[in-house]
Amino acid sequence: MKAEETTTMATPQAEKMDRTGSGAAGTIRRLLRMRETGLILIILVLFIAMSFASPYFLTWNNMRAMAMAFAVEGIVVVGMTILLISGGIDLSVGSVTALAMVIAGLLFLNGVDPWIASAMAIAACTAIGAGMGFFVTRVGLHHFIVSLAVMVIARGLCLLGTGGRPIGLYTLPPEFKFIGQGSIGVIPVVIVIFVVVVLVFDFLLRRTTMFRKVFYTGSNEKAAAYSGIRTKKVVFLTTTLCSGLCGVAGIIYMARFGSAQPTFGIGMELNVIAAAVIGGASLSGGTGTILGAILGTILLSVVSSSLALLDVSVYWQDIIRGSILLSAVTIDHYINKRRG
Amino acid sequence: MSTVDRDDPILKITKLTKSFGPIKALRGVDFELRRGEIHALAGENGAGKSTLMNIVDGILKPDSGEIRLDGVPINITSPAMAQKLGIGFVHQEIALCPDITVAENIFMGVTNTSRSPLMDYRALERRAGEILHRLGDINPAALVGTLPISQQQLVEIAKALTLDCRVLILDEPTAALTERESRVLFDIMRKLAAQGISIIYISHRMVEIFENCHRVTVLRDGQYITTMNVAETTPGDVVRAMVGRVIDSLYPPKLTAEEQSDEIILDVRGLTERSRFSDVSFSLRRGEILGLAGLIGAGRSEIVKGLCRLEGEVSGEVTLHGRRLRLRHYADSIAAGIVYLSEDRKGDGLFLDMSIASNVSALKLEQVARGGGIIDERAEADQAETLGARLNLKYGHVGQQVSSLSGGNQQKVAIAKMLSVNPKVIFLDEPTRGVDVGAKAEIHRILRDLARTGVGIVVISSELPELIGVCDRVLVVREGRLAGEVTGEAMTEDRIMYLASVGNERRLAS
Ligand SMILES: Nc1ncnc2c1ncn2[C@@H]1O[C@H](COP(=O)(O)OP(=O)(O)OP(=O)(O)O)[C@@H](O)[C@H]1O
Ligand SMILES: [Mg+2]
């Protein structure tokens, strides 16, 4: 009786919050409706097309390079997606990521243990996020403006600290470089970290009361307050979390490059926001999934890598990436409109 | 403009159908509007009234069927086009821009078509003032977001009145108004009708339909049932056509003398908020339903929101079941078992783009969570289904977005959200706004049952008959203070209005 009920409940009207349908037919129908399915299909098509177009594409090395490319950025995408769901946005992710590298790198050069230096750098980035959260929730400024200012300030700090030149960290101990360069079996550590972060936050976001409040806040801040949710606290925390994850990403980059790059991550915010939005996050808050955002990241990265393999000029690459973003958002707009 | 037969319909709709996915909102609806008539559209929540009107206004596209305006088949594709054709629409849900002034909102449709690129704010406010003056006193320079919901509703009406329309659609305009304001609106409607303007009037209140309308068309489950001359029918007949069965007594029985208890559930002493209300003291006894009456702007909602710590810096004592409460945030209130049902379900009551289930669970997520704060989706769905069944909610499945429900059913979701925490005291601000007759009676019965089981119930309503019908005792608020209390035989509309308005000359004069 109960089982029957649940299957009939999964009509095509179901939305992303619908996780009530069980039954095989319901599950399949639900899967087909999800944007994640669409993204996976597009990625598969690209894969098949590219494996014909370039013999190098489907090689282990290329796969590995691609995965390495999106894995670290993917950690930032996770933070951005959660922030977008809560109704915020962060333009400073690129500079804060670079700043993490610079802080940890400089501390290390001054004799601090690399692990402690990294922890301090991540803490500093988290503090920057908390600072932005303060300006947004207590002073009442807009995320866009606050993070724009921080983007410039953090970049300035990077250049100030390094004189604008990359700092080589040749003496980093191998066990530290292992996080960025090592492999467990055939799987790079970077990818292991990435998968863990994604799984953990995907679960938290979908299933915990704490993160459900992020959805409530982004969906209708006033209604959330009228449900007893401390919305300012929620926004403060999502802002802080996003910067903290930038810090983590920065450290992994440092371990991978074996250097601190003060100019790293310029324009990263656009990529990250685009990935989240392609994956279904809305700039007005309230919607988005980690899985979708990661698929968005993978899609963008597969496209970049394909274009590079096909020897398409970098300028065209930007144009194509922008067009993909525009089409994804347009299609989404129409699908939503049809649903009413 | 030569000789038009008055009986010649200005608007004629035939066999209109509209589906949303599997939900058939309209199944071949016919409707006919004559010149200069006030035509009521009645039907239960979800019957399809708003959907039909949204199609006439070009917001929704019909699946099939025909619309004729002045006898000419026409395909209305957008609200802008409807406006050009002379169709004005006051929506069920208020759709104003909160951050700009009343005047700018009223002339929004006009400002972007005026020839001069510059806005003349002075003139705008003056003209807005003239229109608003007919409806009640609202400052045209005020920001819409700062007004109470009833005044926003008046602004919405004023906006439609500025358009030169031949057909005016009013979708439950009085749901947010008091008697007095409603009466003003009805006068205006009658004047417009006398000028030859045709009005479609949607309401769940039979009294309004029978006092002001010429004809009434009834829809049920997306189907056309009948059209009747109001003069030749009775409210009972209309309700029967709406629900397909007889609805007997409207209000549940009140507390009898022996049921009355001296046990005090909630005791409030000296509740004060600097500018908005002061020294409000009352107590709520076990079993009773307490009403709060007052004119719009008297401070009823403010008092209650202040008590729950939803807004304002409030001082005063609140004692629940003999225990003095220390409330700092609304979350403390919820934890203590005191909840507030907002009067503005769209603005701050519901998460429209989220599912029914996650709306219902929002007040206390821990209830549907296992240890460690992990949400149990099955429990969450069960909770929504159980409460939905109790409130007779009409929906497809609990994963459906709340925005896809009809207005009345959205209200039921908002009520389900309150009931989800098994509250000790519920403050309900306009609990039956936009709810149909049958469902309204159900909500009243549920409130009475809750009261019987010891839950404290306080109802704010602008509909005096509702307060009088449901409450055992009514407190009257005037200008932020309690002006008096009525019970038993003394509970009459006249008495309440007297207490609510004495000493308030401005209101009396209007
Ligand atoms: N965008 C939508 N998506 C899905 N279903 C919808 C949508 N809009 C309306 N419906 C459904 O269509 C039906 C008719 O809704 P409508 O809003 O017209 O009812 P109504 O008669 O105006 O009710 P009320 O008196 O409660 O305002 C309802 O079952 C509702 O759930
Ligand atoms: Mg409606």
Give a description of the structure.
- Chain A is globular, with a radius of gyration of 21 Å.
- In chain A, a hairpin with a 2-residue loop joins strand 2 and strand 3 (187-188).
- In chain A, the strands form 2 sheets. In chain A, strands 1-4 form a two-stranded antiparallel sheet. In chain A, strands 2-3 form a two-stranded antiparallel ribbon.
- Chain A is mostly helical.
- Chain A has helices spanning 2-9, 24-33, 35-53, 60-85, 93-109, 114-139, 143-162, 174-181, 189-207, 209-219, 221-225, 231-257, 268-278, 290-309, 314-339; strands at residues 167-168, 183-184, 187-188, 259-260.
- Helices cover 74% and strands 2% of the residues of chain A.
- Residues 1-22 of chain A have low confidence and may be disordered.
- Chain B has 510 residues and is an alpha/beta fold.
- Chain B has 2 domains: 9-243, P-loop containing nucleotide triphosphate hydrolases (Rossmann fold, 3-Layer(aba) Sandwich); 264-501, P-loop containing nucleotide triphosphate hydrolases (Rossmann fold, 3-Layer(aba) Sandwich), CATH 3.40.50.300.
- Helix content of chain B is 34%, strand content 25%.
- Chain B is built from 19 helices and 22 strands.
- In chain B, strands 6-7-8-3-9-10 form a 6-stranded mixed beta sheet, with helices on both faces. In chain B, strands 16-19-20-13-21-22 form a 6-stranded mixed beta sheet, sandwiched between helices.
- In chain B, helix 5 (121-135) crosses helix 6.
- The longest helix of chain B has 16 residues, at 179-194.
- Chain B is globular and about 70 Å long.
- Residues 1-5 and 503-510 of chain B have low confidence and may be disordered.
- Chain A binds chain B through residues 8-15, 17-21, 207-210, 212-213, 215-216, 219-220, 222-230, 286-287, 339-340, and chain B through 20-23, 60, 310, 329-331, 333-334, 340, 342, 347-355, 357-358, 362-363, 365-366, 369, 372-375, 377-378, 381, 396-401, 404, 417.
- The site of magnesium ion (MG) has 6 residues of chain B, from helix 1.
- Adenosine-5'-triphosphate is lined by residues 20, 23, 25, 43, 45-51, 92, 404-409, 434, 436 of chain B.
